Amino acid sequence: VKINGKDVRALWFSNGTLKIIDQTKLPKRFKVYECKKYRAVARAIRGMVVRGGPAIGAAAAYGMAMGAERPKRTSSALRNTRPTARDLFYAVSYMEEAIEEGKNPVEAADRYVEALIDRCKRIGVNGLEVLGPHSKIMTHCNAGSLATVDYGTALSPIRLAHSKGLEPFVWVSETRPRLQGMLTAWELGQEGISHQIIVDGASGDLMRRGEVDLVLVGADRITSGGDVVNKVGTYEKAVLAHENGVPFYVAAPKSTFDPETERGDDVPIEERDEKEVLFVGKRRVAPKGSRARNPCFDVTPARYVSGVITEDGITQ
Amino acid sequence: VKINGKDVRALWFSNGTLKIIDQTKLPKRFKVYECKKYRAVARAIRGMVVRGGPAIGAAAAYGMAMGAERPKRTSSALRNTRPTARDLFYAVSYMEEAIEEGKNPVEAADRYVEALIDRCKRIGVNGLEVLGPHSKIMTHCNAGSLATVDYGTALSPIRLAHSKGLEPFVWVSETRPRLQGMLTAWELGQEGISHQIIVDGASGDLMRRGEVDLVLVGADRITSGGDVVNKVGTYEKAVLAHENGVPFYVAAPKSTFDPETERGDDVPIEERDEKEVLFVGKRRVAPKGSRARNPCFDVTPARYVSGVITEDGITQ
Asked: How buried is A272 (Cβ within 10 angstroms: 0-12 exposed, 13-18 middle, 19+ buried)?
């Protein structure tokens, strides 16, 4: 992500410390969160200091490196942070193998992250195919550099289109309860990419009125049957896109694919604290006594997905 | 609405003053806003101190009574407050006629409001038909007492079902940007009706998972062709209900029907200040420099509507 014109990654490792752009503080404040132990990495993942499937995987890879002297204990702590994103489990397994094979753990984590960044870059190239000049793209949540260390998944083709002068425009749905849309708006703003924020409930009518050329989102897990598990609200956009003849694309690297699970409904869906819904920031907005449900992800059945943009091309 | 067990209306007129429960302060604080002149009523409508089509109509009726000595000036000021809700225009025309016919303006406004309340009560009776025991109903925005002076439109059958021991359960979608879902949760909480709050983006997946028996919402305007204009996010719920075989009902009194406009797309849709999206309460959540679009309503084409519950029965 560009910060005042300078390229910065969502996280990086130096001198035994994992440094993470604190996503709970953005867009208000730019703060770097430092993890000196694997337990701090686990806390950062659970607390959403780092979020977005691929970025969680990258943080976990360094977490494994930091706790490599006792890999079983470390992997178990990291796996128990968040249940839905496939990248987390992919990264931990990757590191377990590397450690077992006697490789240098930090170097293995570096390789993991460089490969991820390279995949995201290639997603940009492959995704360019679905974008024309002045495309009006709707996205959800944040599938940008912050969610993937660099380039992003859904935002990668948009960045490339922008750099080629294709002048993309992005509808950013705010993505309650955690408002990750504001992270997307922040990333786009840093690079001068044209965008407007909308509430989640306005997405459908914009499609109905012909204001959206395509929907482009990331994923937390894609099953072998092609179901897409992603931030809650994604399924709604997929159905509304389908109903309005708007293509619905998902962008994800190999590490997001789960070959062992066929159906989205078999993926564990994280339910987070109801306070995320009952409060906005520190302010309670709900009446006293009211309770909330807070499923963090939803399932988009494969039939609504026009294609998945990966590092190897567009599938389906 | 019940407040600590006592019945209170959303607005009432006494000693030349219109008193309105200030909906911008709820659910945090219960405050009564007093209007001594028709201009204060116009300000209260524009600022959403009173909101909800039928309640806006009721406030406007008293506003007309308060400015009855110069009906043209008064009606013009009131009509210019908000463009979408039909009830506003219906109420102003009703009062113009009454004033022209030499009727007592306050008595005419009283009659208007009593007729409205009676309609809402009958909507409750008629709507009971679509509710069974333990129905799981999803609603959007606030179509309760606050939006209609008493009983509500969508909430009227739910209240009646509750009083008959049918134990309804309500999914309350929070309804960004103004979070009117919290008003609904507040009303339900005051009467001990079981409910849970969700973010707007979670509505669809709950339907997909079979957690919703029917959707029941109010309306700001219903065209002669049967299109429903209501709070932004309604169209999304209608499409998702349709896709998942969930009945989608709209509840509205006669004053919400616009016989002169055939298509929803011909209804003027209010766009409100982008700050409602960029801020939550007084806190800016969007990054500096980012802009927002803030359409206040959307259009649900007639084909997605299972039926409209009115004071005379269920149409379609």
From this structure: middle
Rounded-to-integer distance, Cα A51 and Cα A38, Å:
16
Q: Does the bond joining A54 to the residue before it have cis omega, within 30 degrees of 0?
A: no
How many CA atoms lie less than 13 Å away from A95 in the CB half-sphere? 34
- A1-15, B85-99, B226-240, range with the lowest pLDDT: A1-15
Residue type present at position A206: L
The answer to whether the bond into A157 is cis (omega within 30° of 0) is no
The structure's pTM equals 0.97
Contact A285 B289 (CB under 8 A): no
A220 counts as catalytic: yes
Distance CA B152, CA B253 (A): 10
Q: What is the interface size between A and B, counted as CB pairs within 8 Å?
A: 186
Which residue in the list B22, B87, B220, B227 is annotated as catalytic?
B220
For residue B162, the cross-strand partners are none
User: Which of B186, B188, B287 has the CB atom closest to A182's CB atom?
Assistant: B287
Question: For A90-99, how does the pLDDT look when each residue is reduced to its tens digit (9 = 90+)?
Answer: 999 999 999 9
Please name the helix (run of DSSP H) or strand (run of DSSP E) that holds residue A196, with its range, or none. strand A194-198
Q: Which of B206, B26, B181, B192 is nearest to A294 (CA)?
A: B206
